[in-house]
Structure prediction request, 269 residues.
Amino acid sequence: MTNIAVLGGGKMGEALLSGLLKAGQPAEALCFTERYPRRASEITDRFGIRHLELAGATSVAELLVIAVKPQDVEPLLGELAGSLRPETLVVSMCAGLPTALFERRLPVGTSVVRAMPNTSMLVGEAMTALSPGQHVTDAQLDQVDRVFGTVGRVVRVPEAQQDAVTALSGSGPAYFFYLVEAMIEAGVALGMPRALASELIVQSALGAARMLRETGEHPVVLREAVTSPGGTTAMALRELERLGTRAALASAIEAARDRSLDLGTSYAR
Ligand SMILES: NC(=O)c1ccc[n+]([C@@H]2O[C@H](COP(=O)([O-])OP(=O)(O)OC[C@H]3O[C@@H](n4cnc5c(N)ncnc54)[C@H](OP(=O)(O)O)[C@@H]3O)[C@@H](O)[C@H]2O)c1
Prediction:
């Protein structure tokens, strides 16, 4: 059991805390900081996790997860530099910010891991990519792997790939939510009650995801298997191609990657 402090009780901080609790981490081994008092009470009331000031969190944490927005990192690092214990392992979930920024601003030799999880930590189905900073040992990386492994899958990637990871899986759940929303609206436009359209689409999404994972087949193979010549699926796919859906997705993901790079240059001084 590792004592974990999460700095920032926003959406991702909450998703991690709640995912860790569901995975069996005791609430006594978790704490968080949050500058907005009402939000702090909400999390404490909901999960029974201690809300601490920064100094309290750094004094107990073996693993400290930074879950504030990239633009809030600079002032936080200023405060953290004075109170961080040298043996504390720091994990940043901040989009776009390189480990070198944290290493520069925190005490010399601090171990920093860059992690890009996604919001599906809430249901134990996150995809997290980890990249170690220059002082991280194999044992420390294994430790972070185990923590994020309790809330989903973990891969290790060279840090140069983290902006692409952010664009693919960091933001990925939102693309699927968008797609599902658009399909439900299409069902409503065909005269279907919204709740029924939602049930049809959500279960289809879940089934498709499980088929991809459990068969290990390439998506083209699975798609071709349900595309009869001249049939309904073939007509739908022809429309998706005609409207440039594939190109739209490629350009959306490139835009997300570019935004992650921008965050790095704007906030990593
Ligand atoms: N959202 C995603 O899907 C996703 C996926 C992967 C990674 N991330 C990364 O995760 C991080 C958090 O994102 P989020 O969506 O959870 O943002 P968020 O909901 O805005 O949460 C950040 C929280 O931290 C609080 N905060 C800011 N400075 C603080 C400080 N010095 N001490 C304590 N609390 C502080 C904020 O308070 P205020 O409300 O008062 O500002 C806010 O409640 C970001 O760096 C983002 O890049 C997000």
About this structure: The two ends are 35 Å apart (CA to CA). The longest strand covers residues 126-132. The mean pLDDT is 96. Residues 7-13, 33-36, 39, 67-70, 72, 76, 93-95, 116-119, 170 surround NAP (CB under 6 Å).
